[in-house]
Structure of Triosephosphate isomerase:
Amino acid sequence: MRTPVIIGNWKMNLAPSEAKALLRELRELDLDQSVEKGVCVPAIDLLIAEDILKDSDIKFGAQNMYFEESGAYTGEISPTMLNDIKADYVILGHSERREYFKEDDELINKKVLSALEHDIIPILCVGETLEERESNKEEEKVRNQLEKDLKDVKDSDIEKVIIAYEPIWAIGTGKTASSDDADCMCKFIRDYIKKVYGEDYSEKIRIQYGGSMKPKNVKELLAKENIDGGLIGGASLKASDFEQLINYKK
Ligand SMILES: O=C[C@H](O)COP(=O)(O)O
């Protein structure tokens, strides 16, 4: 039985004063304890998240990191810095990082391996563009990303990874993949893990859906066999929406 996992990705939103207010609101919510939950905040908000969430069961993490531990890498944060503040997660390979910051699979793979080596849970994002979907290339695209981004990830580490299937055309657009299509791609990912790592691991690994997941569609999406949670952008910025998402079983 996989524990559902719902994570907010704040993206480049909420300056420290706003972050403080939302985190304090989140901490006061009555959230379903059977759901793993967390927020991945901008780097400048990480210390605030550590402080405000420390006695709650809401975890937190970063939206990116570099793979080296320290050095002359202006503008980056490292896995050891995330360890120092006990961050639980790091989002890697988000389509916005791939598109706007030209991150390629080789770099993402180094980051995934580094996160695992430092006991930080990587939330690896994969997904196709609209053009790729319209030409029936979504499986090819996602398989290719998985092959490259998970290269050299050991059997003993694979179940720690969370994979987020995020069709790019559904991100921030209000268009959600149908629950059947989302489930079908999450199953495709699970089957890939089964082929490479075996059935045991494929049954344990958690696969999220991301792309305009909202209180109104969360129940239907998470009722699907292969969708174990959500990576939520816009709807994670409002406490009441985040509450409804986490409490989707109620
Ligand atoms: O990481 C989150 C996804 O990009 C989804 O964003 P969204 O919920 O605003 O569509």
